[in-house]
Amino acid sequence: MKTSLQHHRHSIRLKGYDYSQAGAYFVTMVTFQRECLFGEVLDGEMVLSKFGQVAQQQWEKLPRRFRNIEADTFVVMPNHIHGIIVINDDTRRGTAESAKDLGVESSRRAPTKEQFQKPVPGSIPTIVRSYKSAVSYRINLMRGMRDAPVWQRNYYERVIRNEREMESFWNYIHANPMQWETDEENLSHP
Question: What is the Cα–Cα distance from 114 to 83, expressed in whole angstroms?
């Protein structure tokens, strides 16, 4: 029985867009309650905590987990990350690391229409879900906690449509630590 208090999740993705197609995507993921888990910004430089190091390491591992992508430039901030994921035009679709994966590539092409609760291998939602899960798992192990939230439920993504946008996002990511004092994710920002 549904009550008026139940929340209904709605996708914020572009309706009908194939998020597994080749292209570049700017993504932002924010920590649960914007908690500054990943470190601090000192004199315009990000200083990673041990949890921030986990976030960085897992970003760097993404191309090994999803062979059809490049994890382009990124930045780990105190309570969020920004990054660019490039999906290559490749028929292989990646999935999360598995002990059973012995390097044999599947010849089956995954469906490309992303549906709520139905992940598409190699798509942006699946890559982000896998990344967030890997970071959460490792941080919770370090904290000695189980299933404590690390991330907000969703994430922001933007399809990068041309070289001008790519350069703009690249510059934004690199300048982000220097802009921390005025960043909307900074809880101490007035």
Answer: 21
